[in-house]
Structures are given as structure tokens and as C-alpha cells.
Amino acid sequence: MSILVDDDTRVVVQGITGGEGRFHTEQMVEYGTNVVAGAVPGKGGEKVNGIPVYDTVNQAVEEEDADASVVFVPPAFAGDAVFEALDTDLDLVVAITEGIPTQDMAKVNKRLGEVDTRLLGPNCPGLITPGEAKLGILPGNIFEAGNVGLVSRSGTLTYQVVSNLTDRGIGQTTAIGIGGDPIIGTSFVDALELFEADEDTDAVVMCGEIGGEDEEQAAKFIAENMDTPVAGFIAGRTAPPGKRMGHAGAIVSGSGTGTADSKISALNDAGVPVGDTPNEVAEYVEDFL
Amino acid sequence: MKLHEYQAKDIFAEAGIPVPESRLATSVDEVMEAVEDIGYPAAIKAQVHVGGRGKAGGIKIATSEDEAREAAEDILGMDLKGYTVEKVLVESGVDFENELYVGITMDRGEGEPVAMVSTEGGVDIEAVAEETPDAIAREHIDPAFGLHPYQARKVVYEAGIPRDVAGDVASILSTLYDLYESKDAADIEINPVMITSDRDVVAADAVMNIDSDALFRHPDLAEMEDEAAEDELERKANDYGFDYVRLSGNVGIIGNGAGLVMTTLDLVDHYGGEPANFLDIGGGAKAERVTQALDMVFSDENVDAVVFNIFGGITRGDEVAKGINEALESFDEIPKKVVVRLAGTNAKEGMEILNTDLVEVEETLEDAVQRAVENAQEASQ
Hints:
- Chain A is an alpha/beta fold.
- Chain A is built from 9 helices and 13 strands.
- In chain B, the strands form 5 sheets. In chain B, strands 7, 8, 9, 10, 11 and 12 form a 6-stranded antiparallel beta sheet that branches. A 4-stranded antiparallel beta sheet of chain B has the order 1-6-2-3, covered by helices on one side.
- Chain B has 3 domains: 21-92, Dna Ligase, domain 1, CATH 3.30.1490.20; 96-222, ATP-grasp fold, B domain (D-amino Acid Aminotransferase, Chain A, domain 1, 2-Layer Sandwich); 232-380, 3-Layer(aba) Sandwich (Rossmann fold).
């Protein structure tokens, strides 16, 4: 079992003819992901590695019966691309694009409240159910199937923690990157809720970072609703206030909200151990299992 | 991207928000010319991205030529919380009765903008928000519709703004939202809006931060970026297109991916060192990017040692190692010890390729950071 994606997921890639889209489509297919279509305006009728391309997402969804999309569209057009995906019957839209203007995402966010489709990201590495499917840019070879769920705001930090887990022979049910932007579709709470409901997930790792209050809300959710044990990591303990640390969303406000300390103590209060190093997180997970 | 007060005020004035008469000056002579035009009293205000400029001595009021000269001499070139003041705004002093606060920012939790209005202007609004949150009236804005005129009136009345100026303040708020949206601002605020003895409203300060991710559709604002940069290294980072933040320690840090770089900073601190910077070189590690990144940390005189931490995902470790070798070979001498740690895809192959005459190699993140911290401690003795 897993959450959100598996062997049966039928994927459309938005922006499949661009450099990133083309490269990562190859990687996804190589991993075993069922990529059934591409969508690029003006490129309908073409093929990329044998995958049919349509002018609109709606055509791709209807013709190929797709249920998820991955967005590799440049930032200037990505907001529109997500709107287009949300205007179809897709279950899941994964927005990889980094650098979508925040006000574009505020409008997308408003739309999300009116549709049933789930958005993951933007500015995220995507998600992977090891051995079944990956949607996004995660390096498939470092993951192994297992019983630990992983949710993170950051890509490479996820890989680091996964490698610490793999060193201990611990695999994953599904690993999800929710993205480093201030406004994102799927939150920690959403992902934790899915892992809690998944029978095969026996423990969860949650990698947060400075900025916003998503981790604090997750802590509350864990305390009130979860039986599955959770171990945490929070990046950005040394970040100064008012500075954007790479991710658009990784910023401690001038008034001191969004600090690592606040998140760590909220998680600790919820019974979640928080590692000082990524390796310590893996140790906690080993103890859980 | 943060705009300076004078840059934001130009934008406000063009949009029709009343601002005091002002001139930008970079020397004492220019200040004296400006006050001669503007008259007394005049405010002389440091143009640096520092909150609480007034308390820190960066704003002075002059009522005479002598005072103006003294203020200009004091402020120009002064160190304000680590920033050297190179420019001042010379502004006509406003004879005011009240100070208000008006601002718009993105409420992350709600995922939509929020307008804020308060009669407690002229002080640190974040302190007001903490101590007396009820003193700030708030109104969330549906980004699909924008700020309806009734919402502007509603929040102004709820804040208890005096009735005779409420219409003018609501009008300023509406203009601010237009600017917030049309310029892709992250925050926009006027603190204070002054009510003059003639019951006019004037924007006495101006804060405007632009969403860096939206600069592609605002070439005019993008041009202001260099002018707004505070630091030679930040300017360099802009040119190279790096996500870079300068800090005060002596361990230089280069890595890939925001979360992992932040974690590397945290580990430097955890093992008793002090991070000198945040630098994310992003995906891949082509020799050119590595050279640029090393140039950044090497040209920071505070840096005594460097840790280079790359997790190769799609990018293979052996390719990264080649990039690092090539980059290091392009330097005549390596001015500071560099510890490299590679992980992920083909990491072992990568570690074997690394030229150990030029770098020290460690296998784990923890070991690499500890070694760099030790190197920095030795170098600084």
C-alpha cells in the first residue's frame, strides 16, 4: 500500500517538450511510472518518446484517461498551467516549478477551495511510491520500498534523510515533497492524515523548515489524531530573521514567527522527537519500528 | 527584494499617494543644497534596509543650517546595525497631529492578502500586533476580486480612524492594494501616515518589498535591485543568480537545495562553529557554477574555511566531482581549506575522483561539518 500514487496512476506531463519536462519524463518512465500523455499548447499531435502530446490538458485527460499531472512549465506560465489542470477531472496535480509569483499562487489557492483535485507543490520534488511510480524529479535509485512514510518541504534534505534510513535498511511506503513556497496545495497536515490512514505506514518522518506555521499545525494534528509515531527534523535553526533562505517560504518574519525553536517545541510538546542531525531522525525511526 | 524608502516613495507619489517633498543626497553638500530648496524643519533619513532607523540614530530633524550639516555629517557614512549609510533622503518636516498605520501583506496561513489599519502608527507595528492585537483592524482580500472599496472603508472605520480623514485613508489603502497587486509586492506599508494640523494625510514613510519571483514581469523594478543591494557580496550573488545570505561567522558553506544547505548551517552551529553564509548552487554542479560559488565564499574576508556538501540526486556524484576538480584547478591557489562531502547517486565514484591535493574529503555530513569547523578554528588562531 501507499498513498496518492501507485502502479495504476496514469500520468500526463504538462510541459513535456521542454528540457526539464522531456528529461524527467524519461526518468519517470524508466522508473516504471505510467506516463500516458503530454500536454503542451501548440504541440498537439507530436510524440515524445512515443508518448502522445495534446494541446490541452483536458484533451489529454479525456483521450488517455489520465488521473494525475506533473507540471514542468516555466514560472511565468505555471500558474495558468495549474489552473488548466484544476479545470479537469484529475485527482492529483504535482507542480514541480520553482519561482511561481506568490500572488499567482494566492489565486490558485482560492480555486483549490472550489474543486476536488489535490495540488502538491509548487516548488517541490514531487512524490514517489518506491518500486511503483514516481511523479516528479526525485532520484528513484535512493528509495526503497518499506513501511515508513516521509513528508518534507525540501528535496535534497529528503534525500539525505532517506539515505540515513536506507543505511539502516529502512524503506518507505511513499515519500512526498510538499514544496518550499509560502502558499502550497498539500500541507503537512494533509499528508499526515493520508499516512495515518495507510495501513502499511508504520512510522512517519516529517522534515520541516523555518517560515509559516504549517509545522505547528502539524504538531497539533499529530497530538490529537495520530497513532502512527512521527519523528521530525526542522531546518533553519541558525537563520536570521527577515532573510529568505533559498526557498521563498523559508523566512523567519521580523516579528519572530516561523522560527525553528517554535516548531521544535510544538513538535516536542506533541510527543514528536526532533533530531539535531538527519542521522538522529533515522535513529528515532529505527527505535519506533 | 526590498526597495529603499526613496524608491518606494517615488512609486507611491506616481500613484497619487501624498508624500512630503524630498531629495536624495549622497554627500553633505548635496544635503545642504536639498535643505535650501526644501526649507526647515527638514528630516534627514538614512536609506538602509534596517528597521527602527530612528531609534538607532539614522533619522534626524534639522531646524537650521547648522543642525542640517551636523545631521548630514553624523548620518552619512555611519554604521547602522552593520550597514554603512551611503544615501540619505532629505525631506520636508511634517507638522502632524496623529500617526496612523496602513499596510498590506500576504497571510500565508490563509493563502490570501490581508489589509491592516491602526491608529497606533509611528511605532513598531509588530510590537503593537503582539501587545495589543485589537489595536489593528484586519481585512482579508480575495485575490480574484481585489480589495473592494467597501472593504477599504470597513477596515478604516473598524480601526477607529478619525472620521474627517477616514475617506482619505481608505483611498490611500485602495491605492496601496492596486500597487501591491500591479507591482507584485510581498509587503507594502506606510508607517506612519501622518495627519497634519490642516487635517491632510501624508505618507511619511514607505515600505515596499517585491516578490523576487515576480521580477521577470517588472523589468523596471528589477533594475532597482542592484541599487537596493546592501553589500558587495549580495550584489555579486545577484549577478551570479545564487540564493545567498551573508551571515557573521567564519565557516563558508556551499550546498545544493535550500533545506540541505540550511541543515548544513545548523550543523556548523551544532558542532561549535559559526556559519558565514547560506549559498545554494541549485541542481547539478557544473564547473562554472562551482567556480562562481567558490569565488563568492573566498571573497568573503570573514571566511576561514569552507564546507561543500552536495547530495547528488539526478545529477551523478562523479559528474559533480569533475566539476569541483575543474573549478578548483582554475584557482592559482586555494586560499581557504575546503572540505567536500558527496552523497547520493554515484557518490563513491565521485569521492574517488576528487583531487585530494586540493580538497579534504569526508564521507558523512556530520564528519565534513566537524572537520570544516576545526579548520576554521585553526585558521582563525
